[in-house]
DNA sequence: TCTGGGGTCCTAGGACCC
DNA sequence: TCTGGGGTCCTAGGACCC
């Protein structure tokens, strides 16, 4: 049996879901992003009783006059032609294409469609790895029909079933491993299938830019280019020793393998979260002293949200951390590990408060975040650890407070 | 005209223990 | 008094991904 791994990638997922609701937007410049619209939500709500596909175009809010700090999550092809790209600030995009229609991000809706397409995949091929809202890996190796035409037949079946049942298209790459499958799923986008074999390395993989390797981002790419390495083929010419010297033991060895299309990672059917966090960027930069009340309220809310997320998902954690971003976009983090697990909003708030004391607060802030890590399943906690008496927790926190305020000894 | 939110993984230094 | 190596945990920062 030949190992056959598929990567399935939904085509322009958010935009496609929105187009199912608003088919009248097809072909128009549309961006999807978060933030605040000045007036025009009212326009859409005026048509609340009208079928969505009958809402007239002039009722949709436009980018022009947009305020706030949101960024673009997805841009339609027509919007991209004006130079708009994802992760671009909405206010900048408004200057490039003021007439573009802007839709709010509707995660609840996308999650429903995500669940739907994953259920379809699972029914046909049960060995699936969740890779976020719009991507999965699937192990085709032992699935009936998974070997036919190198996986193309099964890929076609999944693709067709997803389209019939959701109206959404996707692209699939099938290859000997996850690394190559991920690259292959991009080859024939949208609504395409690509089958890659080991012997395609030379012809199909080596001509590609290094950036196409999942895990090589802008920084690594820049460093590679500074050594004259642009393509994966050029990367494959470098010796292991040189790569390790230049990029470190782990990354060097990984680059060496990746350039050769080698990837032994299994398809993981389940995963446990490492951390749970909430963060928010303020409408305007806030000052720790002057905006103390507002900041305090946001801080407490974030802690409550994290606590609720922990409970909902059934976890407790013992490392509490904060993240803040200054007005110059520099970020800092602080964390503190407790000697007990918790999901209690008050304990999180207190501990995060201690973290906050260890950070300079002269500069204005644009973002505040709260994180809980070192997670354990709440159900695995022994009884005496659950619902710890408040007094015990207080004394544990007081001890930490003492440590924190202890003068440095030299 | 600045740049979201929720994650994972890696590195590197220091503490502490054996 | 000096000098080790290995392992684990904690903390801070940063790259990267969806």
Top keywords for this entry?
410 residues; alpha+beta; Alpha-Beta Plaits; MutS, DNA mismatch repair protein, domain I; DNA polymerase, domain 1; four-stranded antiparallel β-sheet; 15 helices; 12 strands; disordered C terminus; DNA-binding
The radius of gyration computed from the alpha-carbon positions, rounded to a whole number of angstroms, is 25 Å
Assign an overall shape. globular
Could you tell me the number of beta strands? 12
Q: Structural class, judged by helices and strands?
A: alpha+beta
Element-level helix/strand string: EHEHEHHEHEEHEHEHHHHHEHEEHEH
Please state the second-level CATH architecture of the largest domain: 2-Layer Sandwich
List the helices and strands and how they pair.
Elements: E1 5-10, H1 13-21, E2 30-33, H2 41-45, E3 72-75, H3 77-80, H4 90-96, E4 101-103, H5 107-124, E5 128-130, E6 135-139, H6 152-166, E7 170-175, H7 178-184, E8 193-195, H8 201-205, H9 218-226, H10 232-236, H11 240-247, H12 249-259, E9 275-286, H13 292-313, E10 315-326, E11 331-342, H14 345-357, E12 365-377, H15 390-405
Parallel strand pairs: 2-4, 7-8
Antiparallel strand pairs: 1-6, 1-7, 2-3, 5-6, 9-12, 10-11, 10-12
The structure holds a DNA duplex (18 and 18 nucleotides).
């Amino acid at each position: 049996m030949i190992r056959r791994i598929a990567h399935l990638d939904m085509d322009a997922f958010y935009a496609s879901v929105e187009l199912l609701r608003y088919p009248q937007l097809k072909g128009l410049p549309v961006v999807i992003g978060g933030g605040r619209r000045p007036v025009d939500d009212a326009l859409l709500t005026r048509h609340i009783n009208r079928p969505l596909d009958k809402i007239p175009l002039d009722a949709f809010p436009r980018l022009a006059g947009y305020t706030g700090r949101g960024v673009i999550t997805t841009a339609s092809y027509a919007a991209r032609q004006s130079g708009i790209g994802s992760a671009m600030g909405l206010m900048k995009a408004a200057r490039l294409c003021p007439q573009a229609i802007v839709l709010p991000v509707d995660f609840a809706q996308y999650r429903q469609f995500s669940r739907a397409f994953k259920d379809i995949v699972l029914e046909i091929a049960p060995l699936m790895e969740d890779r976020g809202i719009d991507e999965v890996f699937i192990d085709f190796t032992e699935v009936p029909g998974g070997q036919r035409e190198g996986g193309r037949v099964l890929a076609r079946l999944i693709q067709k079933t997803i389209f019939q049942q959701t109206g959404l298209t996707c692209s699939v790459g099938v290859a000997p491993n996850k690394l190559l499958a991920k690259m292959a799923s991009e080859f024939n986008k949208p609504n395409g299938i690509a089958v890659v074999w080991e012997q395609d390395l030379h012809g199909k993989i080596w001509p590609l830019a290094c950036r196409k390797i999942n895990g090589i981002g802008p920084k690594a790419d820049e460093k590679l280019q500074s050594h004259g390495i642009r393509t994966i083929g050029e990367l494959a010419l470098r010796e292991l020793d040189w790569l390790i010297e230049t990029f470190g033991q782990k990354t060097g060895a990984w680059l060496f393998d990746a350039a050769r299309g080698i990837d032994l990672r299994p398809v993981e059917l389940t995963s446990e979260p490492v951390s749970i966090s909430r963060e928010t960027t303020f409408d305007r930069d806030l000052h720790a002293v002057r905006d103390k009340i507002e900041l305090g309220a946001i801080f407490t809310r974030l802690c409550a949200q994290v606590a609720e997320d922990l409970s909902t998902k059934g976890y407790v954690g013992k490392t509490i951390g904060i993240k803040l971003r200054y007005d110059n976009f520099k970020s800092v983090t602080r964390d503190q590990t407790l000697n007990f697990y918790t999901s209690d909003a008050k304990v999180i708030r207190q501990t995060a408060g201690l973290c906050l004391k260890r950070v300079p607060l002269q500069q204005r802030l644009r973002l505040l975040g709260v994180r809980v890590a070192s997670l354990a399943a709440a159900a695995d906690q022994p009884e005496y650890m659950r619902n710890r008496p408040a007094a015990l927790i207080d004394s544990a926190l007081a001890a930490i407070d003492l440590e924190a305020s202890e003068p440095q000894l030299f």
